[in-house]
Write a structure and sequence with these properties.
Elements lengths: L2 H31 L8 H10 L3 H10 L4
Helix pairs in contact: 1-2, 1-3, 2-3
């Protein structure tokens, strides 16, 4: 990938990177502060949120988050 191609896709990539970090940080904070999960434990959810990039936080918020 050359520099011209990178500049072409940069307006699309920046919001995706910001979304990824925002979802990841929000999910990680939620995992660390809340003790109740639908299934699994805190260590499992931290690993999923941190290592599965943008899909990990989405999985946590849809499947793992317990009742507040």
């Amino acid at each position: 990938m050359d520099l011209a191609m990178l500049r072409e896709y940069l307006p699309l990539l920046i919001p995706l990177v910001i979304l990824q970090f925002a979802l990841g940080i929000t999910a990680l904070i939620h995992v660390l502060r809340h003790p109740a999960y639908r299934f699994g434990n805190k260590v499992m959810w931290v690993i999923i949120v941190v290592f599965i990039q943008i899909i990990g936080p989405i999985i946590y918020f849809t499947l793992g988050r317990g009742e507040d």
